[in-house]
Structures are given as C-alpha cells and as structure tokens.
Amino acid sequence: MPELPIRIGQGFDVHAFGEGDFLMLGGVRVPHTQGVLAYSDGDVVIHALCDAMLGALALGDIGRHFQPSDPQWEGADSRLFLRQCQKMLQERGWRVGNADITVICERPKIGPHAAAIREVLAQDLGIALDDVGLKATTSETLGFTGRGEGIAALATVLLARP
Fold this sequence. Notes:
- The chain is of the alpha+beta class.
- The protein contains five helices and seven strands, in the order ββββαααβαβαβ.
- It has helices spanning 44-56, 62-65, 78-91, 114-125, 143-146, and strands at residues 6-18, 22-25, 28-31, 35-36, 95-104, 132-137, 150-160.
- A five-stranded mixed beta sheet has the order 4-1-7-5-6. It has a two-stranded antiparallel ribbon with strand order 2-3.
- α4 links the parallel β5 (95-104) and β6 (132-137).
- The longest helix is centred in the middle third of the chain and has 14 residues, at 78-91.
C-alpha cells in the first residue's frame, strides 16, 4: 500500500503548579504566581507539541526519547526536545506543515504572550508564523485546571513530505 504524503499527530501534556514565579510556555518565560512541578522546565506547550510530532511518526512519546530518569534532562530547556524532534522528522523525510496548540488554564492569561510563543515555535520548527496556531481556554473552574492546581496543553500537527 502506498504511503500517504501527510501524517497527523496529537499530543497532550499536563503539569501541577508548584513553587516558582514563572512558567515556560512555548519557549517563552511567562510571569506567574507559581511554577510547575516537572523534571525539565515543564513547558506543557512544547511537551504536547513534541508528543504530537513523535506520534505522527509512530515514534512513541516524549518520555521515551527524553527519559525523566536521565539526569541530563533535569531542568532542561524544552526547546532542546523540540529541536531534536524536528531533527527526527527531517531525518525521516518529513516536515511540519502546521501546528495547532491549545493551552488550558485559568491563569496565567496566555493572550499577552501568544505572539512571542508563536514566533519561538515557528523558528524552532522552521515554518512560517502563519503555520503555528495557538489558543487558550479555561475549564470554567472545573477540574484541576479550573481549581488553579495546574496547566495543560493539547497539540495537533500535520506532517508533510517536503
């Protein structure tokens, strides 16, 4: 059976809030009253995006490639993960056609940081700014995100042959 020239992947990540005064979201330092509990920098946007990219190629999830038990990833900048996932795509003859990300939290407000996040992601993925969608929503005070206990992100990517 011939291979289709596109693939679609979906990713999800979540982190509980903890001590700190900022969050890393899409490679951007966002001021907040809390940080996140995570082994790396806890960037839910990039972690979800990496899972979507890896999933589209049936390569597992981010934890398979950047194991939390490996000391080299403690406190790591998640942009390293994204760049490595991008390299894995290219080595297999794929590129990101577009990415669509949704951040789920009550706070912080994502809107003031959306343009900067989109720019960082577009740069690291080597795609046009218009090919990176970023949205935010609350969970209407329901669940852990609604109670302000953490943050989550969903990502979908379309991969194409160059």
